[in-house]
Design a protein that fits this description.
CATH class of the largest domain: Alpha Beta
Order of helices and strands: EHEEEHEEEHHHHEHEEEEHHEEEEEHEHH
Number of helices: 12
Number of strands: 18
Radius of gyration: 22 Å
CATH superfamily of the largest domain: FAD/NAD(P)-binding domain
Shape: globular
Structural class: alpha/beta
Length: 410
Amino acid sequence: MTYDYIVLGAGITGLTLLKKLREKGYNNILGLEAEKEAGGLCRTFYVEGHACDIGGHFFQTKYPDVEEFVFSHFPKEKMYQINPRISKITLNGIDIDYPLEANIWQLPIKEQIEFLISVIRNGEALGKPEPKNYEEWIRWKLGDKICDEYLIPYNNKLWGVPSNEMDIDWLHKIPRIEVEEILKDSLERTQDVEKYPAHIRPYYPKSGGYGRVIEAIAKDINPFIKFSTKVNKLRYDENEQAWIVNEEFIAKNVINTTPWPDLYEAMGRPAEIREHISKIKYNKLVISLFETDENPTPYHWRYIPDPKEQHHREFFISNFAKDSKNYGTFTETNANRFDADHLTFKGRNLFNYETPAAYPLPLIGKTKAITAILDYFKPKHLYGVGRWGEHQHHNHDVCMKHALDFVAGL
């Protein structure tokens, strides 16, 4: 059998593609998924009464078609709205609201003065040219103190690569506030949450973790997915003008939603894209679930830039998963930093899960590289969609949007 489309990966992008392909009339389709179930990074594990999402997933989107897609599978009535999401940063033992630059006024006066002087003297204000790597850019935009005490240590912990090796083309993900606004917020002791990124007033399931949403989306498409099937070999047959996967499955078209470095190995390391693939890298995270004796905060999550702490983010899951057992918290730690024998979060460690892949690394040159890779394979009907297919730090609603648009364009 020759399939019209094979979709590699059954995370949220793959699921959306498969469902929309079926709706468009393609019944001769197949999804291949290395895990034993669909969902990828949007799954939830349930451990000793606690929900443990694989990452901090909430639903809020600016795309009407994505909202319609999600609520058509998981009705809004089964969700509740968090209003507002509470995100904090721990800085020198003090918890302040995210983002730091909008909430400097929550620090002690002495530190406020130091931060504000640093902000006012930033490179942009002094007329210096705009830099091209992440570390120099944030110093140029926000000054040294915010960078040295928060952004650089936090991002080094998260990404696992030096800040000066990262590009600046992903900074739309981070709220950027002008110097005038920082001073105004500090003087008036206010913050304008409407200027922050999405997920200020997100939806979350009334029962279970966020994985319930993904389970609902996957329900009627699971029969079209072959699980526990890793792509070990992928080759293009020029005579048949078709792709052969694992010497078993044949397809006219392949849509990749998995990390390109893994697929590069499966393709036999083609020389034509070797230089580009060297710029395409990703990290892995360890999700750790803890049970504590109390939960003294109403927070939803908290950023931890302190390099002495292994993890970089804490999710107080029992504050938003309504039927999760009390006092449950899960943390994210870069897999290269993780040491199970020396955990720095205080509590009973119930569960640790290492993601196969977590974030595409925003390395200098990666945008040009992924563009070249996609352009090279497109004439052969191999496409890339979503976080991994496009190697962009997309939230899951953006992944769904790009999947919807891809199928609509067929």
